[in-house]
């Protein structure tokens, strides 16, 4: 009798399109060929945040309608990038909650919430979380009190709970973990708390630490000579945004944040490796294969934690395996992702701190651009020419779309005394605001870095972009506009006022065979699709 | 206010936050003269843009008073500097360490060790001048007045007398934020001007001189001119003699929000 009931329930679930999530590693490797789902933070291991769905086009985007809204009530910013697997959407809600939603209706299936200490430390950022990872039938989430949690994907029950670091010293996790073959990779926040950064890999089944790579080398390790005295112990270089992965090379690509303290470099002379760098890491051993430092001895908080996008393109007359990054310091970089060799760097936003890059990609820093006690106006602001929110790359057109912040700031230098678990920054900024700052979505030709088009935004954005094979780019604005642009020329196609500031990344997937897009805004998640009987598409398919 | 809200949002989103530090001890009495001087340097860098180089007030209130609004004791002053004032233009000094906040607080306290200067002018006569010269057509005081200009109910608590004087004789020198004059030409060649009350990347909303709201999608506009130099308020430089100007400033400086 009981068995019959179970079978009946299972049958109903399958009929309704909800099946238990089974996401083996190979399925994530092939994520690009399964556009109906969204299996990993950036859509695929290459971090393209590109959907090969093509039902929504420039010709019909104006017909997009709200499908459903899911509202949250937690404290903090709703910055989640949802995963969609077999009829279930997994979102994280601030401060540390995971909810599984029926993707057809937005109705919750289960929720898990971690009770947090009353005095949780989020030094340098607000209480937020940007998403989960999924592998096999387990969902993984990092928490503000720096634990990595494995949850049963069907019920939200805790499978294991591993402490990653101590929140009392300012360590926290806001980034979505990255699930690879048998391992969960997780980065750490705390760049304004004087932590010593690291990147961890945990056994997906047991939660045991597989390896740790310190992003500030200790005594005797290569790179330690770029620090003096004990400065390395509070050297920062956090790993607070999800990286990318090349399954063929078995290399993880992960960016690192600012050296500590942020704006007073006097106490840490030297290049301060591996802060503000891109690291290529052997996924099996955790050993560093190569590094590239974008901003040596950074004093403007220009973290290099922007998404490293893996792509193959023609540079210097031959097709190469590349990694591209639109860096917070306003330069767009192309590196050889096998060797780390610098190939190209071009500005994509206003900057006043460097006259250019030398042959090896090292910035040629202009004089008098450091923070001062009186304040020194430099572009970009500490929030950068872009930030944690994702770019998008269309491998078919080789266009790289990035949300840009055109904003300068007066940078101040202050004292920097380290006390565990307190703000360790050595200064700050007063950013230009109002009509003196603005934003844009820019399409860059990846092989040259040249801008193909720009769509101007009222203010510097805090949201990423999603390009689709239908020829549409989706994004969000600080004023709550969820919008669609023509991917070929940047012209606006559609816009919906969500009623709250947006600080998240869009994703696309199928509901009952129909393409939808979702994005968090304010304290709600909005899902849009075409009407049930859309007009025949006349749009271009790229 | 719009600006300070944005500032706070920037801090939270951009990888910064106000650490939850609390004043351990009242340290002002223990500050050395060199620490007070260090506080002065930081005040000039971070605070003078609103409160004036000497703390005599500009866009922000004067701090040259023995007692300060919202400040009951030194710890309250510390908290106010560190965390700002929610809902006001005063941001928190997230970029300063706890000790630096104490040093700034010490300097602010030193500003108050002066004899307050009594304003010349007759506030009662200033009120009559305000009412008889049409000021209320554009400004609200205690619930009454027009909406084209900013409300003045507590302007005396937020702006220094010198700033208020300058605002009356040379309004362009102190154009209030959030009162940008925009001129719109629609596809139907209709021309409308007013004060921008909101704008996003796709729409703009304005209020005309009659107080009516207008909403436009930018795709329906052929020209959108933002007049950053335009000032709706005329200069009253020649409308009042020196004594009358003192009276008007005394009246405005006395508007402190009390009912």
Structure description:
The complex is a heterodimer of chains A (542) and B (259). Chain A has a 5-stranded mixed beta sheet, with no helix packed on it. Chain A has a 4-stranded antiparallel beta sheet with strand order 2-38-37-36, with no helix packed on it. Chain A has a 4-stranded antiparallel beta sheet with strand order 3-4-5-6, with no helix packed on it. In chain A, 58% of the residues are buried. Chain A has 542 residues and is mainly β. Chain A is 4% helix and 38% strand. Chain A contains 2 helices and 38 strands. Residues 1-16 of chain A have low confidence and may be disordered. With 259 residues, chain B is α+β, with helices and mostly antiparallel strands. Chain B is built from 8 helices and 7 strands. Chain B has helices at residues 2-13, 33-51, 74-83, 98-111, 123-132, 155-158, 161-169, 242-253, and strands at residues 140-141, 144-145, 181-186, 191-199, 203-207, 213-217, 221-227. In chain B, strand 3 (181-186) and strand 4 (191-199) form a beta hairpin. In chain B, helix 2 (33-51) crosses helix 4 (98-111), helix 3 crosses helix 4 and helix 7 packs across helix 8. Chain B is globular. Chains A and B meet through strand 29 and strand 35 of A and helix 1, helix 2 and helix 4 of B.
């Amino acid at each position: 009798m009981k068995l019959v009931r179970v079978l009946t329930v299972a049958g109903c679930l399958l009929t309704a399109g909800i099946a238990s999530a089974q996401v083996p590693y190979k399925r994530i490797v092939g994520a690009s060929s399964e556009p109906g789902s969204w299996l990993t933070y950036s859509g695929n291991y290459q971090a393209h945040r590109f959907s090969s769905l093509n039902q929504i086009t420039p010709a019909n985007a104006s017909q997009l309608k709200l499908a459903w809204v899911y509202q949250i009530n937690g404290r903090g910013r709703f910055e989640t990038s949802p995963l969609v697997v077999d009829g279930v959407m997994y979102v994280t809600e601030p401060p540390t909650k995971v909810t599984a939603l029926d993707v057809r209706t937005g109705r919750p299936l289960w929720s898990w919430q971690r009770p947090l200490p009353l005095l949780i430390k989020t030094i340098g950022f607000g209480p937020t979380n940007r998403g989960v990872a999924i592998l096999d039938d387990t969902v993984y989430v990092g928490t503000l009190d720096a634990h990595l949690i494995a949850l049963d994907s069907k019920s939200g029950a805790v499978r294991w709970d591993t402490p990653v670091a101590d929140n009392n010293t300012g360590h926290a996790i806001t980034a979505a973990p990255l699930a690879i073959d048998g391992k969960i990779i997780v980065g750490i926040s705390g760049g304004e708390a004087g932590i010593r950064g690291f990147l961890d890999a945990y056994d997906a089944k047991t939660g045991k630490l597989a390896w740790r790579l310190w992003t500030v080398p200790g005594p005797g390790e290569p790179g330690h000579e770029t620090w003096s005295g004990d400065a390395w112990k509070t050297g920062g270089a956090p790993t607070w945004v999800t990286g990318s992965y090349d399954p063929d090379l078995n290399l993880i690509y992960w960016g690192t944040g600012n050296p500590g303290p942020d704006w007073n470099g006097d106490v840490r002379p030297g290049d301060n490796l591996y802060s503000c760098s891109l690291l290529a890491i052997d996924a099996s051993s955790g050993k560093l294969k190569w590094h590239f430092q974008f901003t040596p001895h950074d004093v403007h908080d220009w973290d290099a934690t922007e998404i490293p996008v893996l792509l193959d393109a023609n540079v210097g007359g031959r097709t190469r395996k590349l990694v591209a990054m639109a860096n917070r310091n306003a330069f767009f970089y192309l590196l050889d992702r096998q060797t780390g060799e610098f190939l190209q760097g071009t500005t994509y936003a206003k900057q006043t701190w460097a006259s250019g890059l030398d042959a090896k990609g090292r910035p040629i820093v202009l004089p008098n651009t450091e923070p001062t006690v009186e304040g020194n106006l430099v572009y970009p602001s500490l929030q950068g020419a872009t930030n944690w929110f994702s770019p998008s790359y269309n491998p078919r057109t080789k266009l790289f779309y990035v949300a840009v912040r055109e904003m300068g700031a007066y940078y101040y230098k202050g004292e920097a005394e380290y006390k565990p678990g307190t703000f360790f920054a050595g200064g700050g900024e007063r950013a230009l605001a109002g009509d003196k700052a603005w934003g844009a979505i820019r399409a860059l030709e990846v092989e040259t870095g040249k801008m193909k088009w720009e769509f101007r935004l009222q203010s510097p954005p805090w949201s990423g972009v999603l390009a689709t094979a239908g020829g549409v780019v989706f994004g969000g604005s600080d004023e709550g506009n969820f919008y669609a642009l023509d991917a070929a020329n940047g012209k606006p196609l559609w816009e919906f006022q969500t009623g709250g500031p947006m600080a998240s990344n869009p994703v696309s997937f199928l509901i009952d065979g129909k393409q939808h897009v979702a994005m968090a805004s304010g304290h709600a998640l909005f899902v849009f699709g075409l009407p049930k009987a859309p007009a025949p598409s006349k749009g271009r398919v790229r | 206010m719009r600006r300070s809200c944005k500032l706070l949002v920037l801090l939270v989103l951009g990888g910064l936050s106000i650490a939850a530090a609390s004043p351990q001890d009242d340290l002002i009495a223990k500050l050395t003269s060199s620490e007070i001087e260090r506080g002065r340097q930081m005040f000039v860098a971070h605070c003078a843009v609103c409160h004036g180089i000497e703390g005599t007030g500009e866009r922000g209130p004067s701090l040259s008073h023995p007692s300060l609004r919202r400040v009951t004791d030194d710890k309250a002053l510390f908290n106010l500097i560190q965390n700002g004032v929610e809902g006001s233009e005063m941001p928190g000094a997230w970029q300063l360490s706890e000790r630096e906040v104490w040093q700034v607080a010490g300097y602010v306290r030193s500003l108050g060790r002066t004899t307050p200067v009594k304003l010349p002018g007759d506030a009662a006569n200033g009120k009559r001048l305000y009412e008889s010269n049409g000021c209320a057509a554009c400004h609200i005081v205690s619930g009454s007045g027009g909406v084209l200009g900013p409300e003045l109910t507590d302007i005396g608590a937020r702006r220094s007398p010198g700033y208020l004087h300058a605002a009356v004789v040379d309004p362009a020198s102190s154009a209030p934020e959030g009162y940008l004059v925009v001129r719109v030409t629609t596809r139907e060649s209709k021309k409308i001007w007013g004060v921008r009350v909101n704008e996003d990347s796709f729409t703009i909303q304005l209020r005309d001189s009659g107080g009516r709201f207008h909403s436009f999608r930018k795709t329906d506009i052929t020209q959108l001119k933002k007049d950053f130099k335009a000032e709706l308020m005329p200069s009253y430089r020649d409308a009042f003699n020196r004594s009358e100007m003192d009276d008007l400033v005394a009246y405005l400086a006395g508007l402190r929000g009390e009912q």
